[in-house]
Amino acid sequence: MMERSSRFISLSGLSGVSAGICALIGAGIAHNWLAEYWLSGLSHGGDGLRGGGSLHGANPDVRDLQIRLVALALGVLIAALATSTWFTWRKARKSQLPIWDHASKKLAMNMAIPLAAGGFFVLALIHYSDWVYVAPACLIFYGLALVNASKFTLTDIRYLGLLEIALGCISMYYPHEGLYFWAAGFGVLHIIYGLIMWWKYERP
Predict the structure, then answer these.
(1) How many angstroms separate the CA atoms of 76 and 69, rounded?
(2) Residue 158 domain-assigned?
(3) Average confidence score pLDDT of the chain
(4) pTM score, whole prediction
(5) Which of 20, 13, 12 shows the shortest CA–CA distance to 194?
(6) What CA–CA distance (Å, rounded) separates 87 from 10?
(7) Is 4 part of any domain?
(8) Does some domain include residue 122?
(9) How many CB atoms lie within 10 A of CB 161?
């Protein structure tokens, strides 16, 4: 009873799996778009996604690709949040626990602060076309959000956060492999974490 009053324990492992699948699908689409862009010869021998001024001053073809990538990322985020919320709501309902209580509010607030800061930072990177650091920034700030919120939910989420931070730090030294690190962090790690959580806490 004390744990239920101070921690949000209705997080479903299937939420992590669904979020990871959404991320991998999004990464696959982005990979195809990038491959088509480079094969089309529109880059004119330069790297349009790295440097070269702000988003508004970029080559029209580059700008179109950038806008599509941002829209894709938002779509993946919405899909991941929707499926994760549904699985968590289903688990809470099955356990006869409220999904929005004092613990879940604390959890949301402690995740929102690092995520908001990271969101503004990433938007600035996109604006100035420093795309090589977008994936590392996403991973690092997301990991910080998980670590910050872990004291209000299952402690296992702290380890996921630390892995995300470590992966983001490593990816800073491999700037041209950002999409693969992004897919590994938001896709593969989420799926592994979700399966472990399902096995530990939800398996019949």
Answers:
(1) 10
(2) yes
(3) 83
(4) 0.82
(5) 13
(6) 9
(7) no
(8) yes
(9) 20
> Which neighbouring-strand residues pair with 50?
130
Phi, psi angles (nearest 5°) of residue 48: -70, -15
CA distance 51 to 151: 39
Would you state the pLDDT for residue 113?
93
191 membership: H or E segment, kind and range: helix 189-197
Cα angle 163, 161, 138 (rounded to 5 degrees) comes to 90
Q: Which residues lie across from 173 on neighbouring strands?
A: none
Q: Which domain holds residue 140?
A: 17-202
Range list of H helices, 41-155: 60-94, 102-127, 134-149
Q: What tens digit of pLDDT does each residue of 117-128 get?
A: 999 999 999 888
Q: Based on the structure, what is the number of domains in the chain?
A: 1
Burial status of residue 136 (CB atoms within 10 A of its CB: 0-12, 13-18, 19 or more):
buried
- The full length of the chain comes to 204
Q: What is the pLDDT of residue 56?
A: 47
For the chain, how far is it from start to end, CA to CA, in angstroms?
22
What letter would DSSP give residue 1?
A: -
CA dist 105 → 5, 93, 111 (Å) = 12, 18, 10
> Rounded distance, CA 39 to CA 187, Å?
26
Residue with tokens 């996921």: 160
- The DSSP call for residue 58 is S
Q: Is residue 25 part of a domain?
A: yes
Longest dimension (CA), the chain: 63
